[in-house]
Amino acid sequence: MYYDKLIFELSTDGRKGYSLPKTDVKRHDVPDHLKRPDCPGLPEVSELDVVRHYTNVSFKNFGIEKGFYPLGSCTMKYNPKINQDMANLPEFASLHPYQPLDTVQGMLHVYHETQRMLSEISGLDTFSLNPFAGAHGEHVGLMIMKAYHRSRGDEKRTKVIVPDSAHGTNPASATVTGLESVEVKSNVDGTVNLTDLKKVLDDECAGIMLTNPNTLGIFEKDILEIAKLVHEAGGLLYYDGANLNPLLGFARPGDMGFDIMHINLHKTFSTPHGGGGPGSGPVGVTKTLKPFLPKPVVKKTNEGYTLDGETDLSIGQVSHFVGNIGVALKAYAYLLTIGKDSITDIARFSTLNANYVKESLKDVYHLPIEGICKHEFVFDGLKDKSTGVTTLDVAKRLLDFDMHPPTVYFPLVFKESIMVEPPENESKQTIDKFIDVMRIIANEAKEDPDKVKGAPYTTVVKRLDEALAARKPLVKYKDLLDE
Amino acid sequence: MHKYMPHTHEDVRAMLDRIGVEKIEDLFSEIPKTLVHKELDIPNSMSEIELRDHFAALAKQNTPLIPFMGAGAYDHYTPSIIRHLIERQEFLTAYTPYQPEIAQGTLQYIFEYQSMICQLTGMDVSNASMYDGATATAEAMFMATGVRRSDKILMSATVNPNIQRVVKTYADYRDIEVIMVAEEDGQTNLENVKALMDKDVAGLIVQNPNVYGITEDFSNVKDALDEHKGLFIMNHDPSLLAHLKTPASWGVDIAVGEAQTLGVPLSYGGPYIGYMATTKKLMRKMPGRICGVTKDQDGKRAFVLTLQAREQHIRREKANSNICSNQSLLALFVTIYMATMGKKGLYEAQQMSMDNAHYLHEKLLELPTFEAAFDKPFFKEFTLKTSLDIDSMNDVLKTHGFLGPFPQKRFDDTKADLVTFAVTEKRTKAQMDAFVDIVRGLN
Question: Disulfide check for A144: which of A283, A292, B218, B291 has CB 3.0–4.6 Å away?
Answer without folding.
Answer: A292
